[in-house]
Amino acid sequence: MKLTTIALGLSLLSVNAFANDYQSQVDVDFLKVDSYNAFSIKGTHYFDAVSTKDTAWAEAAFMGRKTNVNASYINYDGDAFGINLGGEYFADDFYGALELNFVDVENGDSDTNFSGQVGYFFAENWLVALTGQSEDFSDNLGIRTKYVAVLGDDQFVNFEANYSDASEDVTVMADYYWTAQSSIGIVASSADGYEFGIKAQHFFTPSIAVRVMYEALEGDDAITIGLTGRF
Predict the structure, then answer these.
(1) What H or E segment, with its residue span, contains residue 16?
(2) If pLDDT is split at 50, 70 and 90, which confidence band does 88 have?
(3) How far apart are CA 108 and CA 90, in angstroms?
(4) CA distance from start to end of the chain
(5) Of 193, 185, 230, which is closest to residue 212 (Cα–Cα)?
C-alpha cells in the first residue's frame, strides 16, 4: 500500500514537473539585511494558461501577455506588515495595471494607497508604461519600460528601466538567459544608499525555480532567497 502511494505521488509530481503550461504561480521570498529580516509570499492567477514554449521561462507571462490578478503579504520582523492586491490587463498592444497597498506598523500607524500603470507595446516584447500613485498623485508620476530580446538558441535578454518623478531616481535592471531556464542579472539605481545588485535564477523544472539576489546598500548588505512554484 505504501509503495503504491509513493509511486502515485511520484507519477503526479512527474506530470506536473514537465508540463509546459501553468495558470497559477506562488512566490516565496526571504530577505535578510544586517538590521532586519523580511518574509513575503505572493500568489498570481492567470485567466488563461501560460506557456513556456519558445520563451524565457521567467518571462513567459509577460511575453504571452497574460491578464492576471495577484495578492501578496510581507512581514518585516513582526514590526510591520503589508498587503497588496492587484492585477494586470493585456488587450492587444494596450496594457493596464492597478494595485492596492496597505501597510500597518506595530506602533499603530497605517497607510493605504493605490498605484496604477497605463502602457503600450511598441514591439512584440517591448512595453512602455506611465506610472502613478494616489498619494500626491501629480508628484508621484513616473515611467517604466521592459523589453525582452530573443537571441535564438533559447537565449534571451531582459531589460527594464524605471524613473520616479517623486524621488527623481532611475533604476535599471538587466537579465541574461543563457538557457530558457537559467539567468543572471544586475541592478543599478541612483537611489540614496543603493550601490548595486546582482541576481540569478534557475528553473529545475517548468514548475519549480530558485533565485538569489545580493544587494550592496550603504552600510548594509541585503540577501534575498526565493522559491517559485507553478501549477
Answers:
(1) helix 2-17
(2) very high
(3) 38
(4) 27
(5) 185
* Residue 138, pLDDT score: 55
Report how far residue 119's alpha carbon sits from residue 229's, in angstroms, rounded to the nearest whole number.
28
Number of H helices, E strands in the chain: 2, 14
Question: What does the domain layout of the chain look like in residue ranges?
Answer: 2-230
CATH of region 2-230: 2.40.160.40
For 174-215, write each residue's pLDDT tens digit.
Answer: 999 999 999 999 999 998 889 999 999 999 999 999 999 999
SS3 37: strand
Q: Which run of H or E residues covers position 63?
A: helix 60-64
Where do we find the cell 531556464? 181
195 touches 207 (CB < 8 A):
no
Instruction: Measure the CA–CA gap between 18 and 107, rounded to whole angstroms.
Output: 47
Beta bridge partners of 18: none
Task: Please name the residue that has the C-alpha cell 533559447.
Answer: 154
User: Which of 199 and 12 is assigned the larger pLDDT?
Assistant: 199
Residue range 104-117: mean pLDDT, rounded: 84
Residue 212 contacts residue 218 (beta carbons within 8 Å)? no
> Has residue 3 got a pLDDT over 60?
no
More confident residue, 136 or 119: 119
Containing 31, the helix (H) or strand (E) segment is strand 21-33
**Alpha carbon distances (Å) from 97 to 6, 11, 151, 231:** 43, 38, 28, 23
